[in-house]
Amino acid sequence: MAIIRPFRAIRPIRDKSSLVASRSYLSYSNETLKEKLENNPFTFLHIINPDYKKKIKSKGAEKFKLVKEKYQEFICKNYLIQDKRPSYYIYQQQNTTHKFKGIIAATSVDDYINGNIKKHEHTITSREEMFREYLEITGFNADPVLLSYPKNTKINSLLLKYEEKRAEYEFTTTNKTLHKLWIISDEYDIKNIKKEFNTIENLYIADGHHRCASSSLLKRTKKTEYNNYFMSLLIDENQLNIINFNRLIKGLNSLTYESFIDKIKINFDVTQSLDCKPTKKNEIGMYLKGKSYLLNAKKDSFHNDCINRLDPVILSNNILKPILNIIDEKTDKNIKFISGNIPFSELRKLVDSEEYQVAFILKPIPISTIKEVADRNKFMPPKSTYIEPKLRSGLTIYPLD
Fold first, then answer.
1. How far is the C-alpha of 334 from the C-alpha of 355, rounded, in Å?
2. In the chain, which stretches have pLDDT less than 50?
3. By the 8 A CB rule, do 103 and 88 touch?
4. In this predicted structure, what is the pLDDT of residue 353?
5. Do 401 and 82 touch, CB atoms closer than 8 A?
6. What is the pLDDT of residue 55?
7. Measuring CA to CA, which residue among 178, 157, 176 is closest to residue 167?
8. Whole-angstrom Cα Rg for the chain
9. Contact 139, 394 (CB under 8 A)
10. How wide is the angle at C-alpha 67 spanned by C-alphas 25 and 233, nearest 5°?
């Protein structure tokens, strides 16, 4: 059973919601980040980058203390306010192709520790500890973990009821995405939401593995009621937009184009094609020297279990490691990961310019496969999925003290 509870969010006042909420600072180029910080005094990016004007940037605990000071400054200036009553929050994001809607809530850390919240990615211990320290020093959590749950008719009906009401926030960002937020403070609706989530056996992490892990560490080292929970956006798994990650390779390990293809043919049926968009099971696209290919893995080239039948693993075990000598994809500089929402035309330009030698195009991994991996306590290789929605920072903030 999934344990969630309402909380008193700290959030932007209505007329500044569009100015405060921001994308993850990692998603901005240095130039764009500078422009945002210099021209928008209300952006949450000021909290995350409190020393951006200094030539020498702070690090670690020193930086986190500055983040807390800037956060408290935003509260003192009434850019941020705290709700008087514990509430759930409905968040909706709509772009030109997809509409996402879910419930922002405080989710039980114990559910993560006990395995009721399923994970499908490895986490890095140093990053877990860094985020734990960040949470402990700053005293807030501003980025919800994206969790999915199986379709629930009653939850969907309640979300539809609120959609007919005026939203607390409604604004459109420059990427043509509409954002809305409703507040659920009605005790009857809160009771019914809790009740319905109590019938859901497992939740699945779509995005935010390190945030979950660091919240778990924080609970163990600093025992407070607030630290028993972390903020999440809970969304029907059928709404998730799961996108593939493609691979760009700089060098062919001293192989000619012809010998490279000959080596691939050992474990793949190679067919030249009008495009390199894979559609079939165990099929991978390849763009090489101005030509498109489809690679179909031969049956004896992989084991048919939930991990080894994944396209990224088939590619890694049969091409990247043995042919291109790319052993550790997380650190090897010969490989670049490109999310599937970047048009193929951009990848083709990079290969045609010879900045990269070859592009591999993979298919999105379905939610059923992601759940199977998580249920079996297995882990996907790095950059297997790019999952939307990507959430805004600072729209709702979960206080930790």
1. 11
2. none
3. yes
4. 96
5. no
6. 81
7. 178
8. 23
9. no
10. 55
